[in-house]
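Hey,

Quick one before I head out. I ran the complex with adenosine-5'-triphosphate overnight. Inputs first:
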Amino acid sequence: MIEDRAAMGPEDSAPEPTPEEVQRPPGPARYRWYVLAAVVVALLALPLFRPMISSYNYVLTLGALILMWVAMSSSWNILGGYAGYISLGHSVFMGVGGYVAGVLLYYHGISPFLTALLGGLAAVALGFLAGFITLRTRGPAFIISTIALLFMFLLMTDNFEYLGGAAGLPLPPLEVPQEWLRVPFYYAMLFIAFGAVWTSYRVAHSKFGMGLRAISEDETKAEVAGVPTRLYKISAFAMSAFWVGVAGGIYGYSIAFIRPTVFFTIAISAQMVLMAIIGGKGTVAGPVLGAVLIYAINEFSLVVFGATEFNIVIQGTILVAVLLFFPLGVVGTLRKMNRLPAFLNWD
Amino acid sequence: MAILEITDVSAGYGAGPDILQGLSLEVEEAQSYCIIGPNGAGKSTLLKVIAGLLHPRSGDVVFRGESLAHRRPDQVLATGVCFVPQDQALFPEMSVRENLIMGAYLLKDRALIKERLARVYEMFPILAERAGQDAGKMSGGQQQMLAMGRALMIDPILLMLDEPTLGLAPQIAQQIFSQVEQLKSMGLTVVIIEQNAQRGLELADWGVVLDLGIVRFEGPSEGILGDPRVRELYLGKAAGSGEKK
Amino acid sequence: MTNVIQVAILGLLLGGVYALMAAGLTLAFGVMRIVNLAHAAFIIASAYISFFAFDKLGIDPLLSVVFVMPIMFFFGIAVYQALFRRIEGSAKFGEMTVLLTFGIAIMVEGLLGFVFTGIYRKAQPGYANESFIVDGLFLPEGDILFIPKGQFFASLLSIVLLVGLWAFLRYSQTGYAIRATTQNRAAAEIVGVNVRRVSAISFGLSTALAGASGALMSYLFPFFPFRHWQWVAVLLALVVLGGMGSMKGAVIGALVLGVASSFVVDQIGPTWGPMTFYLALFLILLIRPQGLFGKEVPV
Ligand SMILES: Nc1ncnc2c1ncn2[C@@H]1O[C@H](COP(=O)(O)OP(=O)(O)OP(=O)(O)O)[C@@H](O)[C@H]1O
Ligand SMILES: [Mg+2]
């Protein structure tokens, strides 16, 4: 109750102060760079320790997947976190990347390691186009249109023979000895994750990023303050598509087939959203942390409950609980409590 | 005897600062009050607190011996306190008649509702003329009359009007004022917020000057109008012309 | 010519059912600004109730609305009280509701999958595979029209419920309160409407409509837990097309798109039916973002 609804339409509710406005802990800002360097070195060096890792391929596959999710949720965050435009259809970009790279491999034999970036660009192009149409709306209507976009692509890929229809296309495997097979994929995903997090960081610290945050707080005010809102929103949409598309290109290759239900399903979009929210949407470190957390929870529940629908229930429950009790996510909540360790503070 | 006693009320929005900062005020039965004060002083906030739309953080609001501080708006309304907010008070897609009927939402007695409706139509003939029209399609002045008419459907003891003449042409504003006069003469207790301090104080028996969330001055209207401090601080150049925008 | 009439009839029958499904969704948005992404998940959950009532107890799916609706009504009220009341008045309420209902949808989907597995279900009451046959009238010699009984009864029930809903909103005291809250929440509060109570009731009504829709779905469309995403995409397209929150818009949108998709299926092929909805959604966003009967861009 308490709220004054007499004067408060949905638009003019006073914006909460963003985490950025909240006093930052004065902690030792230096050491976060050491932590970062250590993480990077460890990730780069991981494949070198082959003799010491018992299930080498499993570890690298897992690593590559986590890195992929880091990349995708960080990218989603550019639009959903910074600009406040929630996309529930973001896996459409993963699919576009996957199909572009997959088709070029299947029909022309060009390696996705070369064409994944092309897939990313195709995703950007779609982002521009879709943004141009869907960003005429805000809030719920926008969210709905992103779902529709996803289903349109599911339907189209399902029905185009050239793309293999619902059965998809098998991709020739990478010609590398079995024991080294996961290494190139691991490094590719590592590169993509770096790229995505770096992009997210740069956006967060740019004038563009400030504009997006202004849009997220109050679009009308941002507009009045001279932020070119439409351009910014569309750019954010396109930019948030890029690394997702690249990741899709590599992912399809790594599982050796492309198929509509691998990419164009809302469950994948849901993961990106969930990771960003649980970690803290609108922060640089949040989606990274969220990806690791959610992935860990998923693996854990798969081990404990088996491959049942039960981990879907768990995910839904986590999402609801986080929204109700910690809407700022881990990073945002810690920051609000002034407890955020410096190595998580990249905003 | 005071029918409304506001004691030491502090209130604010969400987690924000106190807008009302320990405000106290007494309202006497069948008297009329004009609240003036600069923009953002907390005038509307005060009325929202009384109406139950915003709960005080501390202090109490007592109406005829009952505390309203933690009541829901519908419960406050049931005690006879009715609020007409600053803007957007109507149901735009309902007809004038339906809007008026909504004003009697808490009443069950159909005959009584009919009777009240007839009385409001008598007071505001324009509403009778436009009974079937959508409220959202009426002019600003007509909408204000409808909002007032709707408030009368519940036959309130205390009527609170938040800037009823805001944005209206002078003749229309004049009409609204004379309606308020009429309500006064019917024995209603009226609290009105008015930007046009001169005009508002001429209308009311008692003037209340609000600033920074507390009552700065209060007294009989003529006194407030004549008080040099008030003139200087709050009426400003408006003292002569009556315009303060 | 006869074929065109046939396709149009099928489309209208379909649209009638879509209208019922969309009505609940638009009601929740209109009154509470809740975009309920879990609406289709609720429909599917209800479809399971009706399916098992038919399968195990032999209760006719059409008849099952008698208990599915009340069950879903109270379920809706419980969900509202447990979840939505907490976020009332929070900044970005609209966005919060989308994410929250997204989470609820995932939960419901997972639970249904966990309990009932992912296999397709479809109740098979006698009339599901029968048709009324119309001949003579204005039709050319020898031509006949099929009116599938299942679809026909479903549309009939849908019309009855929608008219009932309309009358309730139009004439009852609570209906007045619901409409008032939809149009101006603050003003409703001022005239003494207990908006929380009204919100809870409206959400209950909305889920009760999902319940009735589920009863129909149980024998009209094969369903399994994951299906709800496709459905919610279609329903949201209808609601956006009609203008979010507009009951009239939802019904007209459902009928128009029901017929349109029916023609698409007839001319291009059954797999492209859903495309009608998505394309219509994008088209409407391009031309008139607020939808046919919406007043403003909902925020
Ligand atoms: N819904 C709200 N949420 C947060 N703050 C509010 C809200 N409504 C008003 N305020 C703040 O409360 C303070 C007092 O507002 P209030 O509306 O009571 O002023 P007022 O005296 O009526 O001014 P005016 O003459 O402009 O109507 C202002 O600083 C305003 O920003
Ligand atoms: Mg005011």
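Residues 2-227 of chain C form one domain.

Talk tomorrow,
K.
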